């Protein structure tokens, strides 16, 4: 019998918030962008994501444009500040325990996220997860180009990226023998293929689908926060 996969979306699933949107607010706080203009665009992209109409290529270019001219060391230093200041407070204790429970059970844990790999790789490390499938920012001599490398890890792209990972890694595992945790209707394609689909603090669209299909619905947030969501 092949090893079970424990698949996790990241933003608003393992995190109590969206790391990409938080990155935009962090850039504002550091004075690296114009506050009103950047916030308007940042909020607009996030609204498009929630509505299922996001242009992920434009989103990545916008997200990373303010740091394209940074050296690798300068970019890494800024990212470390971002993780400490903005991301750590979003890490949910119940999410850590969920990951730990799957690890104790011998499951192979992966994070699949539309947010770019530069931002999310250190976040995956916070959960002790080595396997990360994220939208990959193209680099040239260590510098950000503003383009996406390969298939974005977004909507149906998550399925394609996971299938490619399974083929390349030689893992004794399959999507059919997996559990996938997500908050978003954007992940419906993979939720439908997973052996077990779990809606985590879901958006209204996913909550309705989960109820119709009998999928488990859970919350990883503290009771008050979950009630406010």
Q: Could you give a short description of this structure?
A:
This protein is an alpha/beta fold and 229 residues long. Helices cover 48% and strands 22% of the residues.
What is the helix/strand order? EHHHHHEHEEHEHEHEH
Q: In the CATH hierarchy, what is the class?
A: Alpha Beta
General shape: globular
Mean pLDDT: 95
Number of DSSP helices?
10
Number of strands: 7
Class per helix and strand makeup: alpha/beta
Rg, Å, rounded: 17 Å
CATH fourth-tier homologous superfamily: HAD superfamily/HAD-like
Strand content: 15-25%
Low-confidence stretches: none
Report strand order across the widest sheet.
4-3-2-1-5-6-7
The number of distinct structural domains comes to: 1
Give the helices and strands, then pairings.
Layout lengths: L2 E6 L10 H11 L5 H17 L4 H9 L7 H16 L5 H12 L3 E9 H10 L4 E10 L2 E7 L6 H14 L3 E10 L5 H6 L2 E5 L3 H10 L2 E3 L4 H6 L1
Parallel strand pairs: 1-2, 1-5, 2-3, 5-6, 6-7
Antiparallel strand pairs: 3-4
């Amino acid at each position: 019998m092949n090893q079970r996969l424990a698949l996790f979306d990241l933003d608003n699933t393992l995190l109590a918030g969206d790391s990409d949107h938080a990155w935009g607010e962090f850039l504002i706080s550091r004075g690296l962008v114009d506050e009103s203009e950047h916030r308007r665009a940042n909020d607009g992209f996030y609204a498009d994501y929630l509505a299922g109409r996001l242009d992920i290529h434009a989103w990545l270019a916008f997200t990373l444009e303010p740091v394209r001219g940074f050296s690798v060391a300068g970019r890494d230093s800024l990212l470390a500040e971002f993780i400490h200041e903005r991301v750590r407070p979003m890490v949910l204790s119940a999410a850590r325990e969920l990951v730990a429970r799957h690890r104790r059970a011998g499951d192979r844990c992966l994070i699949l996220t539309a947010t770019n790999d530069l931002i999310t790789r250190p976040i995956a490390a916070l959960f002790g997860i080595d396997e990360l499938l994220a939208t990959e920012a193209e680099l040239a001599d260590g510098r950000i180009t503003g383009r996406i490398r390969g298939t974005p890890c977004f909507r149906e792209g998550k399925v394609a990226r996971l299938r490619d990972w399974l083929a390349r890694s030689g893992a004794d595992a399959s999507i059919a023998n997996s559990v996938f945790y997500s908050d978003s209707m954007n992940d419906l394609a993979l939720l439908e293929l997973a052996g077990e689909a779990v809606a985590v603090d879901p958006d209204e669209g996913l909550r309705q689908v989960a109820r119709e299909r009998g999928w488990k619905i859970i919350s990883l947030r503290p009771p008050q926060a979950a009630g406010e969501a």
